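Tutorial handout. Part one gives the primary structure; part two gives the three-dimensional structure as tokens.
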Amino acid sequence: MEYLKYNEYKSNLLSQTRNSVKTLNLLNNSVTFDYLRAAVPEKSIKKARYFIITGNGDSYCSALASRPVFENTDRSSTTGMVPGVATETPRAIEFSRYYNTYRGWDPTRVAQYMLLAISVGGSTSRLVESILRMNAIGGQTVAFTQNINSALGKAGDYVVDINTPECDQPAPCVTSYQASLFAADMFGLYVGMVKGFLKEEEANERRNAALEYVNSFGGRVIDEIEEKTFELSCDWLDKGIEIMDFIADGPDYATAFFGSAKMVESFGGLTTIDDTEDWNHINFFNRQPEKSGTFIIANTSSPAFGKSLETIDTITALGRPLVIITDTNEDIFPKSATVFSLPKPKYSWANALMQHIPMDYVAAYMGIFKGETPYRANSEVFNDMGRRIRASELEIIV
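Part two.
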């Protein structure tokens, strides 16, 4: 196959990815701490002791990636004590149909729960169901959505308007993911301030540090990432690589999960997602390793970095095509791997805001090369299944 120059290609997914830095700067201007104070009063935050964050698809990735901000892990000591608020991130159906259904709810604690349900469109049935369940039990609920008049927005006690910037649609969404993640991160800092874990100047310093990290991708940096992913995509297409594994641990798992989702949404790629330990128990045995493209996120800030290095050695020994996304120098990794050595943030939770970009670009280029329609939108069957997500029957379990 003959290829154009990388910057001559156009698609909605490419456009959203190229505008990532601009998107987050716009969000920084709209999702302010003053706005969050007005959206969810401090007295309600003070009342809450247990936070549950949930979503579906990209929104669930936002929930997973924002959890460290609520737990305030950048203040954690070597004792492992968590200085922030108790936070859980169950899947939406896990919360709406199973959470505490066996042991029941402690009546002395119910009012101390706060559920944050993330859905950009605000019409996903399981998220609406989750909020209605928490409402029925007696906890507090906050809807994170760009459609405040949606079913989700109307169901929540409070609404945080994600205020997603305008972007080229339809596409496997990058802009909406960044919007929901940034809003959740800033809400986590707001909670920290109200609870007394952070002074206001400390919260503002963290916000500014995250934005400084985002802006470090500007100019030639993001162009170089795109050019490198273009070359990788051309190589993988020519080699017939369509099966892809995504590997990461902790909050980085959310980024790997998001990257795998973009491959599926963009061109119907066959992907799996696992952590560094379980991958060695299962996908290690896949046949045709030379046809299994493998992405691993290996950050030095991760407690599992050592296990990531072990897994990278194993992947290399198997002869798998390997992509490493990292916050450190590429010299420590095998020469056979394609390494994206990205800027390192002051606070590790900010990695999730930008480390998905190499995978977004690969998804975009593979979709273009294969001539696929994102989301299988040219199929009545797939369009109907999408509607079922929003029309699925609600069942409130108390």
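Part three, for discussion. The longest strand covers residues 292-298. The chain has 17 helices and ten strands.
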